[in-house]
Amino acid sequence: MNTDQQFSARITCKRIVVKVGSGVLTRKNSLNIDIINSIASQICLLHDRGIEVILVSSGAMAAGVKKIGLKKRPSETPKRQAVSAIGQADLIREWEKAMEHCGRKVAQILLTRGDLCDRVRYLNARNTLNTLLEWKVLPIINENDTVAVKSLQFGDNDNLGAMITMLLNADLMINLTDIGGLYNKDPRVHDDAQLIREVTTMGSDIEAMAGKIAGPLGTGGMGTKISAAKKLTAAGIPMIIACGLEEDILVKIADNNYTGTYFVPNAQKPSSRKNWIGLTLQAKGRITIDKGAQKAVVEQGKSLLPSGITRVEDYFEVGDPVEFITEDNVVLGMGLVNYSASDILKIMGCKTSQIKKRLGFISYDEVIHRDNLMITAYPDDARS
User: Fold this and answer.
1) Which string of DSSP letters, residue by residue, matches 28-73?
2) Which CATH superfamily is domain 15-274 in?
3) b/e for 117-136, b at 16 or more Cβ within 10 A?
4) Distance in angstroms (rounded) separating the CA atoms of residues 294 and 249
5) How many Å apart are CA 312 and CA 374, to the nearest integer?
6) Segment 24-81, tens digit of pLDDT
7) Nearest to 117 by CA among 339, 337, 325, 283
8) Which residues pair with 182 in a beta bridge?
């Protein structure tokens, strides 16, 4: 962590994802049109520099609350979804009007997590977005609240933004919030709060720090922003948290002359497919592995064999995404399994040469092949 005023990060980008939170876009439970116009103007300036921009925009709920005259946001899920559906139309209209001032067109993209967990729909979404960028159209993305049940929700636009960044292999995600970065304590409450200018290593201390800073609106807070940063840095992509209310903040970031928090990415960048497996898919179950298997998989980059498995949780089938964890319940990563849960229960702890005897067949030597897994744990937690 770096709290110094001098900032070491230097950003050179051709493609960025900008996520704008509810705390930036709303004012007294309605859309802040001045901010929308300001951000749109900055996006146009970035376009003029040859930088492709993808926008992930919150604000549908606030727009809907104002339009139908509610005094506060509803708490019941169907009502929240209905209000968001009403507000989404106004939200996209305001962005469209703002971008028209500089002669730019916009496109609305509404997604659920299920769209990105399905490989075919994932690739279709990527192809559509790449086409829009080729046509110089600004994609504006939000969660499809109307149809997103809990199991298909991103939960917040911070993680949606991170997944879109990985989907499009963008160079950077800029997370604009009403707080200008990650602080060691809530700056709205503590006058002596210090801004963390740079995070070089993600760890539980960063998560603990962020957990104390809640969001004023929406579903996120600093905790969900750190969750997004964890995904992105593991994928080899940097993220910046900055204040979206600051004048010309996007231009300042492009000029490397800004105040905020920069999350340094891992030097090693996994393949797009590994990022999809480890950081986008939702686990259908869990496998507990012993220290020997942990060392082989995490430190030596080997496949997961049945001999190192000590426990199987939940029901899953061949090809499902499954978390593998330590005996202390630390999640190490995610992988696609070659055997069902019921078959793994029969072969766990045994050598590869014994698989056929126990099952009557052998499909693979490995329960999870190394090409089909990704380590997602913090480095200190991953070591055996």
Assistant:
1) SSSB-HHHHHHHHHHHHHHHHTT-EEEEEE--HHHHHHHHTT-SS-
2) Acetylglutamate kinase-like (3.40.1160.10)
3) beeeebeebbeebbebbeee
4) 43
5) 19
6) 998 877 899 999 999 999 999 999 999 999 999 988 888 888 888 887 888 888 888 8
7) 283
8) 196
pTM of the model: 0.89
Here the tokens at position 258 are 């800004």
Q: Of how many residues is the chain composed?
A: 384
Domain locations in the chain as residue ranges: 15-274, 283-382
**Residue written as tokens 């996520």?**
19
Calculate the alpha carbon distances from 187 to 73, 171, 239 in Å: 26, 29, 21
Residues 233-263 have pLDDT tens digits of 999 999 999 999 999 999 999 999 998 999 9
Query: What's the CA gap between 169 and 153, in Å, rounded?
Result: 22
Euclidean distance between CA atoms 20 and 23, whole angstroms: 8
Fold topology of 283-382? 2.30.130
Residue 163: partners with Cβ closer than 8 Å, 6 or more residues away? 116, 154, 231, 279, 280
Dist CA 293 CA 308 (whole Å): 5
For residue 286, give both structure tokens. Answer: 């869990």
